[in-house]
Amino acid sequence: MGGLVSERPFSGFMTLGPAMTVFRVIVTAFGFANGEQKCLDVFVLQILFVLGPSFLFFCELYSMHWIQVLIGPTEALIEARGKLPSAVVCPLRQGFALIPLTQEVEAELRERATNDAQEVLPVSGEMAQGAAELASALSSNAPIVYAATFIHGGTGGQDAIVWLKGEVVLNVGDDEENMSAWPDSPISRALRRIGVTAETGEDEFDALGLGCYRSNESWAEAHHLKTYSLV
């Protein structure tokens, strides 16, 4: 999946409803909603058409969540730094961390991947070359999760694979046509398998804060100045 871009066509009109809702809140907050609701809707539409596609594109972009990461106990992922110099270990809650599979990490994975390694593929069939090999190696002492989201315009899917002691113990996924019901998304199920706990009203995805950033690069940029060691 690494490096892929969405083939889903731009759905600005699908975003129009949420955009109007946002503007209604804004204009109401500033006291511009003294007229009838119909007049307010006309006002909102006028603003949207003046702003043009750029605003709708911003709404669409904000609704994207497109990551490919390895998740596990912090100590286990620190070990990967010795094998992948460009890897950024991003701390999560409950003692876990993640490594975003940025373009630099993918390049290093390809270089160290062995030709005879048996690659495990997620349900979508797309994953960075060498990622499964690394996850399998890191799982010798702790469970490791490969998690990927490809959400665009509010629809899409997830992949999740769990390794333990070098073996795949869970491989689940969904897609735009068959999205899993909350709170049992593929990633939440995988995180639940490795011991992540969720409070009432949240799932394991939210419990670790995986929605804080929406791309591999955003995760890496937010944490690239931090370093971790076991001493």
Mean pLDDT: 78
Most strands sheet: 6 strands, antiparallel
Unreliable spans are: 1-20, 55-61, 227-231
Gross geometry = globular
Q: Give the topology string: H per helix, E per strand.
A: HHHEHEEHHEEEHHH
Query: What is the count of distinct domains?
Result: 2
What key phrases describe this protein's structure?
about 40% helix; 6-stranded antiparallel beta sheet; alpha+beta; 2 domains; about 230 residues
Structural notes for this entry:
This protein is an alpha+beta fold. The protein folds into 2 domains: 12-62; 65-223, no CATH class. The chain has 9 helices and 6 strands, in the order αααβαββααβββααα. It has helices at 12-29, 37-51, 53-62, 74-80, 103-112, 131-138, 186-193, 204-207, 216-223; strands at residues 65-73, 90-91, 96-100, 144-152, 155-164, 167-173. Strands 2-3-1-4-5-6 form a 6-stranded antiparallel beta sheet, sandwiched between helices. Helix 1 crosses helix 2 (37-51) and helix 1 crosses helix 3 (53-62). The two termini are 35 Å apart. 33% of the residues are buried. Residues 1-20, 55-61 and 227-231 have low confidence and may be disordered.
Could you provide a short overview of the structure?
The chain has 231 residues and is of the alpha+beta class. The protein has nine helices and six strands.
Present the secondary structure layout.
Blueprint: H1 12-29, H2 37-51, H3 53-62, E1 65-73, H4 74-80, E2 90-91, E3 96-100, H5 103-112, H6 131-138, E4 144-152, E5 155-164, E6 167-173, H7 186-193, H8 204-207, H9 216-223
Antiparallel strand pairs: 1-3, 1-4, 2-3, 4-5, 5-6
